[in-house]
Amino acid sequence: MKKLTFLTLLVALGGTLSAQYSELGQEKNFISTGLPIILIAPDAISSGMGDVGAATTPDAYSAHWNNAKLAFIDGTAGAYTTYTPWLRKLKVGDMNLFYLAGYYRINDRSTAAASLTYFTLGDIDNTDIEGNKITTLHPNEFTIDASYALKLNDNLSLGATGRFLRSDLTNGQTISDGSSNTATQAANSLAADIGLYYQQAIDKTQEFALGAFISNLGAKLSYSNDDNDKEFLPTNLRLGGRYTNRIDEYNKISVMLDLNKLLVPTPPLRNDTAGWADYNNIGVIEGALRSFGDAPGGLQEELQEIQISAGAEYWYSETFAVRAGYFFEHANKGGRQYATVGVGIRYSYFTGDFSYLIPTTTISTNSLANTIRISIGLDMKPTK
Fold first, then answer.
1. 132: which residues sit within 8 A by CB, 6+ positions away?
2. Does pTM top 0.85 for this prediction?
3. For residue 219, is pLDDT > 70?
């Protein structure tokens, strides 16, 4: 099952099957988790700005990036959906990511939201050693969320999310490694998110915002009855900021920066038998705390585990937006590095957003390379 979940990680996050050593000879030490799909940007807004989101302008997608932003959302109710095609560069036609989110403003201080993420890996033929078809598998993963955000004062808000997660990669098939057979099962878990968001006007035309968000803190995923074969959820810490300047009546620009770090223990090196025995027994909370100082390469490797997202957004008359951004991940931790661009349109109750991802390195193969993501939404309060 380790091979199966690692393959899913590669498909979802654009990992690489190439050499496990950097050009300098340092062993690459990727952090593998179950259900990595839930870290992928679910919308064409943030995904057009390098996957920033901790302190971006609040919208219906805020539950994914920082649930506390929901308390400051502009509108009384709304629903958004996003379609993301998968591996289109490889001409794979039946792998897709779907996201549906909605919010409702309860009163001036609080907002509730819910969302659904669904990832299908298409149809996969299961064959015997001679290549004869046994059955067709339909692997899929999904999450269901419920969020609540509360304004603590005019500038600060707190958010909380509860999440149910399910990963069904094998449809209950028995997996063989040549020497033994393993009965598999769908993996289920519960997780929680907590967020803080602060926004403050500098003057009549300028504003800054700060956000902190811990997501996917929950029980490990188990794809079999083997207690040593459990996967950590991709628990993640996101810190970010935004600066917005309304230049005049028609023009507004924002710049944003996020830092991300998985709160998952760093795996031992491959030949560290004792280290792996300890790794398999680490609990969720212990693993999150240890993640700040357990890398075999010391502080240098810990810093390599920080992902950087930077983005900018320009609005004309609150009707048309242009976006750009960049995402950086160190080569020894996956090597995803890409630029993004996007546009947005607002008219009355309706919204439409589009983003496009451009890989800037050959270190890893990005599953979203040269892919257009599309988001559409409906807000009960007109934006214009």
1. none
2. yes
3. yes
